[in-house]
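2024-03-11 09:14:02 DEBUG pipeline.ingest accepted 1 chain
2024-03-11 09:14:02 DEBUG pipeline.ingest length=202
2024-03-11 09:14:03 DEBUG pipeline.predict start
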Amino acid sequence: MSQYFEVHPTHPQQRLLYRAADILRQGGVIAYPTDTTYALGWHLGDKSALERVQKLRRLDKLHLMTLVCKDLSDLATYARVDNSQYRTLKNYLPGPFTFVLSASRDVPRRVVHPKRRTIGLRVPDHAIVQGLIESLGEAMMSTTLRLPGAALPMTDPLEIRDALEHQVDLVIDGGHCGVEQTTVVDLTTDVPEVVRQGIGTL
């Protein structure tokens, strides 16, 4: 049975964020709100949690995983970025974008694209996410909470709890989210390429 935290969307309760961070450190998978849709989150180094998410969403090894950061201060830890790429990131983050970057050696091989060695980087403009990452003290792995066969992501935290109460360890209720996903932009090419048009506009 998953835990269920009602967290204020703009002034999140710190004690609940600390508890959520502990669940992540202990190998938990959480459902949480972002500035676009609800998402699934887990600890970067936890192989078992990754496998649970892949099974839950029926993802293959080529699916782009996203690294959610509080800001760009730890960027060099997870990605190789030149000056031009950094200016682009600084201009659009935080916000509803996922940027595809070359992963650094500090990122586990199992969460990067096996052929391209890339990772998605995301800095949501959402108080709950930023507070959670700060409480965790490091970036968190993430993917959109869209169940197999569903056309759209889940948006209602109560429905998420009913559907996934035995498959995730925590549902963070931060209110309803939208259904439109991030805009995915590949920065590893000579010219930035929009891979998926979502809510963000370049």
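2024-03-11 09:14:41 DEBUG pipeline.report The chain has a mean pLDDT of 94.
2024-03-11 09:14:41 DEBUG pipeline.predict end
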